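Form 7-S
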Amino acid sequence: MAVTSLIGCSAIDKTLTENNETQLSSESAATVYYNGDIITMAGDTPEMVEALVTKDGKIAYVGSLNAAQAKHKNAAQVDLKDQTLLPGFIDPHSHFGMVSNTFGQADLNPPPVGNVDSIDKMLKVLKAYKEDHNIADGEWIYGWGYDESQLAEDRHPTKEEIDSVLPNNPVYLQHTSGHMGVANSKGLALMDITADSQAPEGGNIARVKGSNEPNGLVQETAMYPFMYTLLKTLSPKQAEFFDQTQDYYASNGITTAQDGSTTRDAIKFFQSQADAGKLKIDLVSLAGVSDLDENLADKDFVWKAYQNGFKVQGTKIIADGSPQGKTAYFTQPYLTPVADCESDCRGLPSISQNEMNEMFAKAYAQDNQLFIHNNGDSATDMIIKAHEYAVKKTGQAADKDRRTVPIHAQFARPDQLEAFKKYKMLPSFFTNHAYFWGDVHVKNLGAKRANFLSPIATADDMGLKYTNHSDDTVTPVDPLFSVWTAVNRTSRTGKTIGVDERASPYQALKAITANAAYEYFEEDSKGSLAVGKLADLVILDNNPLTVKADSIRDIEVVRTIKEGKTIYDRAKSDSSAQ
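Output:
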């Protein structure tokens, strides 16, 4: 797995600055790419051509090399030297803003992303982070990416353990799922969380066994105050982190990224960066549903249209939690004990059915595209019911081309996939779970449910459009690793999680190119190599369609090109890092 994570981005940043100053060719000049595997991603089966020509930021020709050179005699020539050229990767779902904020936090990820595999190591990292960054007593300290299922202790850290190394600072550690975290005593006190505190609807405040005393773990809606404080604390460094984050995405071949839940303030910040000409890639934002009324009423709020490379595509709703964190909402209970739950432990809905119904109706009435986080099948039932309620209330056709996106839909049942197809919904799957938590899901949910997670093969057989994402910061935004997990579905221990749901390499590539463009209503400008589309390209050192399935994860991005301009070059990045 080529996990770039967020390491070495300063070197990448330097390289991209140099690339933007000295381009392979000027944007107005034509460039011919040839002598490689040029995969168009234009149809249901693989198609390769001899040459591709770009001009003025768009694709000018796709076809034979002789015709390309005859039509563009003075064009610059790029010999691919048997490397592979594809449309630039399109990120169907991640959290650009959260990724950016990780630059201001301690990295607590377990291998292979990080090195924290025990609570003892975690505490050492936190103590060192304060010292290395000269953080004064009283200031917030944040960490991200810890995963209790990969810790030697097989549990969350406690507030007392964090207090033992950071007694004088409020601390909040974000779980890898993004749906929970652990605070120390000072952090809990600042949020006024005590033994008398009641858990908010859709959330949980975990307790010390045998008492009402909080143990530090806050889940789902109970963690929201900590996340608001994190955003406020780190906001002064947004501009500094912004460039590093773009470079991280570009180094992974991504030319269009997503911020999967964006506040109004963050939208203003992203637009200001775009207006200042600082975007190297396109950035798509999903506005938070808590701002839906204000956003819809705001006459100056622009939906679905790029402004200098940034657009707000639609609205994000959260229906449930995390399957590995045992907060995803299922019709059948978890098979292993769930903290603070005695019986029928099926997870938590984040909102009520009535609330979701009205959100759908309000959005549908204004032609506002919805993206809904859902993991458990009960949460997926909620989405289908809300859709049916909204179309009835608005009088709209149930199969209107809205492209409502159930995000994750990891444990959707076959009947729910049929409903997605019927209602023209576009699920965005998350096959990285097969690797990172496949073994955990078998244990917590049983083999039947685990083996049907992110069922790309079944969806494709049904003719259902789908995408596949990383959900970074949950897993690294490495599209080729996502292709590998979709094709192999291999867990950390080497087991295959759902043999029948293994995708073909081409299906997996479509999920991050042509289908991802369709998700954003951008199929006329992105996602495949066709004349008139944007010259958003990625060059790989090997062909995902021809290498051994288990070697797909080892393929590296050689160059990323946005509208004809090189925004990442591995060779220059490697030399600048030395």
